[in-house]
Design a protein that fits this description.
This protein has about 160 residues and is of the alpha+beta class. The chain has one domain: Ganglioside GM2 activator (Ganglioside M2 Activator Protein, Chain: A), CATH 2.70.220. About 15% of the residues lie in helices and about 50% in strands. About 15% of the residues are buried. InterPro entries: Ig_E-set (IPR014756), ML_dom (IPR003172), ML_PG-PI_TP (IPR033917), NPC2-like (IPR039670).
């Protein structure tokens, strides 16, 4: 009887713990990011983008975590995101930079994180995201990176 009780507790522990561990240790994938023009000395230098989950799953939340640095204080501005599918722009959105990160942004390293749920009608495939950060009429940075959208989560096995 004692061994049956331990087995039931183990099963309960396993059923509760495993999904929690999967959420905690879900892989965040680094994505190749390119500045739009390597000849421009942008005020904000983007060092990397992480996407979770990768590939993005239709109708599920996704997080884009952008690691960057700046040599100057940035009082505010806007973030403009343009998404293209097979070269055709399919989505544009603009956000107040200070709603995405606490302003002013002090000189040094910082992380900009944005989460959202993609609409259920987005077709699966490869996309390109172009993001600019602007302050008044100054272009602070411009980056591009690719990401994929899938109908279903991809197993790591």
């Amino acid at each position: 009887m004692a061994s049956l009780f331990r087995l039931k507790n183990f099963n309960l522990f396993f059923v509760v713990l495993c999904p929690t561990l999967l959420l905690i240790f879900h892989p965040i994938t680094a994505t190749d990011v390119k500045h739009c023009d390597n000849k421009i000395d942008y005020a904000i230098k983007v060092h990397g983008v992480e996407i979770s989950p990768d590939p993005v799953v239709i109708g599920k939340p996704v997080s884009f975590i952008i690691s960057a640095s700046t040599g100057q204080d940035i009082p505010g501005g806007k973030v403009v995101i343009k998404v293209s599918y097979f070269g055709l722009q399919v989505h544009t959105e603009t956000h107040n930079l200070c709603e995405e990160i606490s302003c002013p942004i002090a000189a040094g390293n910082f992380v900009l994180s944005h989460s959202q749920t993609l609409p259920g009608f987005a077709p699966p495939g490869s996309y390109t995201l172009k993001m600019t950060m602007e302050n008044k009429n100054q272009l602070l940075t411009c980056i591009k990176f690719n990401f994929k959208i899938s109908l279903f989560p991809v197993s790591d096995n």
